[in-house]
Amino acid sequence: MRKHFNYTLLVTCTVGLLAASVDMPLAWTSPNFIKLYSNDSSINPLPRPITEREDSWIGSLLVIGAVIGPIPAPYICSKFGRKKALLVTALPIIAAFFTQAFARSVYTIYATRVITGVSLGAGYALLPIYIGEIAEDYNRGMLSQAINVFWSFGNFLVYATGPFMSYRTFNVMIAAFPASFFLLFLLLAPESPHFLVAENRLDQAVKSLMLLRSKAKEEVQEEINSIGQQLTEQKGNKGLKELFATGFVRRAFFICLWLVFTQELCGFSVIFFYLQLLFRESGSRISDELSSLVMALFVLATSFVSPFLVDRFGRRTLLLVSCSGMCLSLAALGGFFFVKEETSASTLPIYWLPLASLVMFVFFFNFGMSVPWTITAELLPCYVKETATTIITSLSWMLAFLCTNFFHSVTHKIGIGRTFWCFAGYCFVAGIGIYCFVPETKGKSFTEIQDVMKFGGVFQFGSKKVQGESKDAGENKQSKEKY
């Protein structure tokens, strides 16, 4: 079975170029804020240094674009197909990166940040859908988590090259990534077989699966029939009414929404937007450029962990370990800044603590906090997936906007240390919630996952029997074909 995996992996890697591209704007501010604050005209492309308020807008306007981006995504996705939707997603970010390279006004940067945000929001909404629909049951978790490797690679590239390149050269360089995706994906990637079956374009669906699975027509017919059966069972209204009308769909939606919110409420966007400035604020003996480079290496290295573990230990385990580790690392980081700001004690003996804490934060974030997007693609039925993903993505970026835009205000009120303790406290609460309410989806087909959500109790513990499932439902589940 695994010998047929190669072309799907190739397509996933091609999609990964877009994942890397849309995540670059998240880390873009870290090395470029240092340049934009500079009085040196050979470093700063603008005629004057930016202000702290402009700093906040440059960071948060990206998130406003990310709130807007997912809104047209489901219409394009369902009307024209997943492939065309991803190609359209790449166009704004290509134009914005090239425009940024030659920007001479802070307002131009404002505009490009909104535009890159549109691609960022649309990418986060569409990438899990496409990968989830081209993958097979046994590797769906691994392929979905592989996107996290490319997201992390986008951050790594920014942190590793941004501090050491000129503003213009850096922006031209990163523009090459979405441009490469556009060309390769256009030539290599097939349309999602799920979309083609839903559109009754069965011949094209067969060809798509033959390419993805490297199998003959007769060998993919069973999977085509399974997709058709699932779409028939889950056919319905794609609007808000259907999303909230059924108990198990409503429950799945709120679980997914809360998990994605956890990515922001643990401090992810704040840390990645202001990473280099945080190192500079800490007064560490280690230079902020070197610290950012070390962080970049850990961002990339640790992103390889979850794809190999998610289908071995399960989604819930990775989430629980992730929340626990982030809680401890953020508590330590908050402790360093509390000592520095609130006491007369010297932080020189623990100058290494900010870097160590943030390295551990990145490790544990990458360990499990990309799993919410995998779970979102798995828990939600096909007939509400596009609508639900749009709402989840937009609301999560709206939350990111609030976190980043008010970060300076909050730290001025309560201090950096207490701010990070708030993030740590949320991680602790999130871990309890995950233990109690998040079902395990490892190794299950989409049909089996829906059965768990329909007939299961609140608590789901991996291989344990689903509580509340009727005998008839159990027999029905056994008889259904796997995805």
UniProtKB/TrEMBL annotation:
It is found in: Cell membrane. Pfam families: Sugar_tr (PF00083). The keyword Transcription regulation does not apply. This is Major facilitator superfamily (MFS) profile domain-containing protein. GO terms for molecular function: transmembrane transporter activity. The chain crosses the membrane at residues 57-78, 85-103, 109-131, 143-164, 170-189, 252-275, 290-310, 317-339, 351-375, 387-407, 419-438. Its main location: membrane. It comes from Phyllotreta striolata (Striped flea beetle). The lineage of its organism: Eukaryota, Metazoa, Ecdysozoa, Arthropoda, Hexapoda. Keywords: Cell membrane, Glycoprotein, Membrane, Signal, Transmembrane, Transmembrane helix. One of its GO terms (cellular component) is plasma membrane. Residues 1-19 form the signal peptide. Belongs to the major facilitator superfamily. Sugar transporter (TC 2.A.1.1) family. Trehalose transporter subfamily. It is a multi-pass membrane protein. The keyword Phosphoprotein does not apply. Residues 9-442 form the Major facilitator superfamily (MFS) profile domain.
